[in-house]
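Page header: ASSEMBLY MODEL / two components / 346 residues total.
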Amino acid sequence: MEAFSAIVAQASDPDDLKNIEAAAGAGMAYGLAAIGPGIGIGYIVGKSVEAMARQPEAAGMVRTTMFLGIAFTEALALIGFVVFILLKFA
Amino acid sequence: MLGLEFPPINEILRWQDVYPSFNKIALIAVVAALIGITLFLLASRKDPLVAPTGSRNLAEVIIDFIEEGIVMQTLGKSGLKWTPFLLSLFIFIFLCNIPGVLPIIQMPATARIAIPLSLALLVWVIYIGTGLKHQGIGYFGHLLWPPGVPTALKPLVGFIEFISTIIVTPFSLTVRLMANMLAGHILLVTFALLTEALLLAETSQVFLVPMSILPFGMLMFLTGFEILVAFLQAYIFAILAAVYINNSTEGHAEEH
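Prediction written out in full:
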């Protein structure tokens, strides 16, 4: 955080300052948005592997449900990614 | 500070128009549609009584996959009439995704929001239409209030269900497909740029130029990964469409 304030202190131009803040905000947005879905997807896949190992004949059904769960969980990370793109480039 | 300049987003997502208002994305989408149509037309021309070969074999494998992997898993036996729709969705999205890793083309058509948004709105119209057809005007009641909700909570639950079914569903369908392909595309661009910058670096350090093998290896790995993602996103889009259609044919009442 000290290094960041040092960089901000150097920026005299308001445009530079805006770019620095946008880049930092974008990085923070994506980094924070990735935490929850990361834990969630790990949990879903772990439990699915457990279920498939316990009952291999149900593997097909478990796999479909697993992909569904991953798709719903992952959406949050992807919204974070879209925010990242918007902050960085828009 | 950095040895390379990341290009602005317009440069990696937009090219000169082939013709005014007809750019590379539209070209990829048209070619994808034509390839899909040609494959299945060719397959349907062949004699169904002899053992399948060539295009018919491929078409049968894909149809089997859609029936076993998507329709039977979500809609059940009575949903087999949805196979053509889900098959078209799957094939079109997959063929739009896969140019992201094809050399020279290197652009997934679904990385721009237009195609995912149109497809998501199509799915939205279809699942609401199916709900109205199967349950009549009461569909909106089922949609807003799952059975067993206390009357005091009805305004709150109705509001949340309305937002989630009418607004969030198409939005997340769109964003999931678009952001996945866009993220993959930007990753590939990043590692290609890193490889180029290291390979062409004008430096006295002997080890710097051979180091370009590292980002190149990552680029190869990510290209393989993107093939998987292209398939998986098409599969997920189709399966979610099937789940939403199933929700509106069954209604909340029979679900629990």
